[in-house]
Design goal:
The chain has 211 residues and is α/β, with parallel strands linked by helices. It has a single domain (12-207), classed as Glycosidases (TIM Barrel, Alpha-Beta Barrel). It has nine helices and five strands; from the N terminus they run βαααβααβααβααβ. The protein has helices at 18-21, 34-38, 55-68, 80-84, 93-108, 124-128, 141-151, 170-177, 187-200; strands at 13-15, 73-77, 112-118, 161-165, 205-207. A five-stranded parallel sheet has the order 1-2-3-4-5. α3 packs parallel to α5 (93-108) and α7 runs parallel beside α9. The two termini are 20 Å apart. Pfam families: Glyco_hydro_1. It comes from Candidatus Neomicrothrix subdominans. One of its GO terms (molecular function) is beta-glucosidase activity. Keywords: Glycosidase, Hydrolase.
């Protein structure tokens, strides 16, 4: 199979998850996420995931590298606790400004910015309150939906595509195999909450992603 087999309208790009790359776990008003708690230094062979690849501070260099490899798109994901703290706070302006800068830098590099709204990086406080527990309700999603619409108000029309959630198959699969909860219980709620607002924002593509 050759690259040309995919056609001229196929978009080649890179994709990343907020916790895996951003680092800066407590910078500029970010609250702890569930991954900050799970990957505390010392829990796994004396190491932790706090720094990622330091994308929060080095994103211009990383975007230049992506461009240098010849990709046409850069798909990032949003960290809920960077945008909304514990889920109870108002929008964190510095978190929103960070994602605006990343989108701007992607555009300046001649690439399409794509955004995953929720890549399983909720605030630890929201989970502790039961707002995202399989046995709970869907109210915990509402602050995130509002925050995304407000945070990207300026740049929404510049984003080529939104994905509601990354790796949709993994949490349902784990829930079924380990009997930890009903598969995909929250996914329809995310779909109903995110999609209309994202489409109204002017993005040509807003939908699901499979991985």
């Amino acid at each position: 199979m050759k690259r040309s087999d995919f056609g001229d309208d196929f978009t080649w790009g890179v994709a990343s998850a907020s916790f895996q790359i951003e680092g800066a776990p407590d910078a500029d008003g970010k609250a702890p996420s569930i991954w900050d708690e799970l990957n505390r230094t010392g829990r796994i062979a004396g190491e932790g995931g706090d720094q990622g690849i330091d994308f929060y501070n080095r994103y211009p260099e990383d975007i230049d590298l992506i461009k240098g490899f010849g990709f046409g798109a850069n798909r990032i994901s949003l960290s809920w606790p960077r945008l909304m703290g514990t889920g109870r706070e108002a929008l964190n302006p510095k978190g929103a400004e960070f994602y605006d800068r990343v989108i701007d830098a992607t555009l300046e590099a001649g690439m399409e910015p794509w955004v995953t709204v929720h890549h399983w990086d909720p605030a630890a406080g929201a989970v502790e309150r039961g707002r995202l527990d399989p046995a709970g309700d869907h109210r915990g999603l509402r602050p995130l939906c509002r925050g995304v619409r407000r945070a990207l108000r300026r740049s929404r029309q510049e984003v080529d595509g939104f994905q509601r959630a990354g790796q949709r198959g993994r949490p349902p699969g784990v829930g079924v195999l380990r009997s930890q909860g009903p598969a995909s219980q929250h996914d329809p709620a995310q779909r109903a909450s995110h999609q209309p607002g994202l489409r109204r924002g002017g993005s040509p593509h807003a939908g699901s992603a499979a991985a």
